[in-house]
Amino acid sequence: MINFATWDKLLRQYVDTQGRVNYQAWKAESAQTLNQWLGDIQQVDIEAQTHPDEQLALWINLYNAFTIASILKDYPITSIQPKVFGIPNWIAFAWFFYRPIHKLGNDYYNLNQIEHKILRRKFNEPRIHFALVCASVGCPLLRNGAYFPESVHTQLEDDATRFINNPDKVHYDSQTQTLYCSKIFKWYQNDFLNVALPFLTTFAHTSKRMSRLERIRRLPT
């Protein structure tokens, strides 16, 4: 089984319970520790991790660790979405997710590949969208601890609960009977197809008020 202890310790040290990351301290004190852990992971035989929960925890941890490592490398930065003369540079933004710089074994991966071709395709688990972090305000909050195979489903349940009960992501207007949702539910609508409303009702504290929903609108991320 892969040892996630180093990644877990770093998250607990530099991420608070609200998902805020102390990038300045992390880079000054422990950037090399993260890089060393990722270097050790490169030697792991991914195919040997045969249990689905082991693979699920591994790929979520790797996605988030690769994201943090990429930010620390260039920190300080104001955003992963650079601007040129005040205009968003979408090409550079996309390159952050599509550049194949993350090595595992003999292969190189990019964040887009890990999310869409591995996690979404293999696991059919919509709760990953509340766990994968892109270092943007609209993204889910970074958990201040690693995901572990024996608890990954409980952790994803907690992530979903936190996301859906965050009024910046989901809120219900009782006067208009409208549920406003993050664009995550639009971008990944196929993942949530036929489960979106039951999914929200399961997690949201306002489930009783949401029982007579008539329409859904989406919040900007």
SSE blueprint and pairings:
Elements: H1 5-14, H2 23-41, H3 52-74, E1 83-84, E2 87-88, H4 90-98, E3 102-104, E4 107-109, H5 111-123, H6 152-164, E5 170-173, E6 178-182, H7 184-187, H8 189-192, H9 196-203, E7 215-219
Parallel strand pairs: 6-7
Antiparallel strand pairs: 1-2, 3-4, 5-6
Describe the structure in brief.
Helix content is 47%, strand content 11%.
Structure characterization notes:
- With 221 residues, the protein is mainly alpha-helical.
- It has 2 domains: 5-146, no CATH class; 170-219, no CATH class.
- It has 9 helices and 7 strands.
- The protein has helices at 5-14, 23-41, 52-74, 90-98, 111-123, 152-164, 184-187, 189-192, 196-203; strands at 83-84, 87-88, 102-104, 107-109, 170-173, 178-182, 215-219.
- Helix 1 packs antiparallel against helix 2 and helix 3 (52-74) runs antiparallel to helix 5.
- Mean pLDDT, all residues: 82
Number of helices: 9
Q: How would you sum up the major sheet? A: 3 strands, mixed
- The dominant shape is globular
SSE order, one letter for each helix or strand: HHHEEHEEHHEEHHHE
Strand order of the largest sheet: 5-6-7
Radius of gyration: 18 Å
Indicate how many domains the architecture comprises. 2
Q: What structural category characterises the helix and strand content?
A: mainly alpha
Pick out the low-confidence regions.
Answer: 206-218
N-to-C span: 36 Å
Sheet-strand content, in percent, reads 5-15%
Helix content: 40-55%
